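Technical appendix A lists one of the benchmark inputs used to test multi-chain prediction within the project. The record comprises two sequence entries:
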Amino acid sequence: DAGITQSPRHKVTETGTPVTLRCHQTENHRYMYWYRQDPGHGLRLIHYSYGVKDTDKGEVSDGYSVSRSKTEDFLLTLESATSSQTSVYFCAIRGVQTVDEQYFGPGTRLTVT
Amino acid sequence: GENVEQHPSTLSVQEGDSAVIKCTYSDSASNYFPWYKQELGKGPQLIIDIRSNVGEKKDQRIAVTLNKTAKHFSLHITETQPEDSAVYFCAAGAGAGSYQLTFGKGTKLSVIP
């Protein structure tokens, strides 16, 4: 257990509404990541953070923003949710055992209707 | 950017037989290659990884091989058991800077009792 929790675990929302997903870690790791998982696409990186207030874009960042005001929390926001953002979202942290290993949280299933 | 291809997308084996999953990558700068196992409704779990200074690594029934010249790496599971049934993902990373991982699209392994 890498000490990662995600909330909420399930959410249904309507098109056009804002949504924020939370990732919380208890191990004080510097690097945190947000991925989305869709059938036929595997895991794709949305955004990542390398420290408090330090974030950068990943492969599929359009329509998403992130914030990290504390080491332990990494927030993913969908400013105006669309049906194409229906997905399972995973948070990951890096550096538990070695500098390059990534460990994943349990995921959030988001449905946009 | 990096591109990771994974084959096959589905694999069925009889209990006790071996299973092999293969991945190729495109970026010669990649030097970290993890494998993840994902059970239904859970986050991906790191099961084994290999770095570019090693050609093979083994952990009980699981082994990974790496051919840097050909840019491919493989996961081998021997003496398969029903609990090995899951989706397996390979990934490649540059092991420096942001340590971003690029994932393959996954292989659904079914072990038939």
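Chain A touches chain B through 23 residues (CB under 8 Å). The mean pLDDT of chain A is 93. Comparable benchmark entries are summarised in Table A2.
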